[in-house]
Amino acid sequence: MFGRWVGNRTNRAQRANPLAGVSVPPGAGVLSCRALDPVKEPVRGAEFAVSDAMGRTVVSGGADPFGSFVATVPAGEYRLAVTAEGYTPFRGNASVSESTHSPLGDVTLQVAPQPPLPEAGDWEIEPMHSSIAFTARHIGLARIHGRFNTFAGALRIAEQVERSAMHVVIDASSIDTAVKMRDDHLRSADFLDVDQFPTLEFYSDRFVHKGGSRWAITGALSLHGVTRTVTLDTEYLGVGNGMEGETRAACRATTELHRDDFTVNWQTMLARGIAAIGSSVKIELDIQIVPKG
Hints:
Elements: E1 3-6, H1 9-14, E2 28-36, E3 47-51, E4 57-62, E5 68-74, E6 76-83, E7 90-96, E8 101-109, E9 121-125, E10 131-138, E11 142-148, E12 151-157, E13 165-171, E14 175-176, H2 180-187, E15 199-211, E16 214-223, E17 226-241, E18 247-258, E19 277-291
Parallel strand pairs: 2-8
Antiparallel strand pairs: 1-8, 2-5, 3-4, 3-6, 6-7, 9-12, 9-19, 10-11, 10-19, 11-14, 12-13, 13-15, 15-16, 16-17, 17-18, 18-19
């Protein structure tokens, strides 16, 4: 069961309109909804999306501190989707009449089942089906995308997964933005200084389950001779089998690094006072692991 309406929608719609006296554009109405967890507490991180009969999103947004969402939309028939981290998505129908308030009541979101975890033991990153990518802002407008082509990593999955450990080593010289001149500059002393600091390393022994398929992996990142604490916002994708029947597990993770934290602070300013390169870099990882050996 993906969720359920609480109460009688017809009776609620017949109650006195709480928006009486509120100006609503001609041809429009107001819909509202509230997301609750199984013990009837508001789900503050809930996201709402209202789409039309063609599947096009009409309006979307997050819940307020009470788990509620209110929107003005053209009168018509809609589909409502409610999602939240750690919960199974809810989908239902919504009918909005002109110049009226259409309260959809409370939606109870059910806790999402956790995907099966990898078996305890030693695992390693399978680089052929993994990637470590980054994105940086350029001249305050565009984004530059790149990746590291050479890396290796090992994980020791503990019986209690929260006690697992991970060690990843990245070859700094393998940085690749598809432009040789730019890559040579990134390898120079202005940025990664790969002659002096040939690798980037991440070590973690703290895995925190945030609910459902979400995990936070916190560890020490060593880059450009500086070590800082970094947390990877991680979505665990589960365990499966590869083309030859081998066991695999996968995850996606993101984090944001600030260049100044690692003394990678080369910069040049444009004539209008805009930095040529943004101060932060977004890191995106798509990782598959296989049992070691």
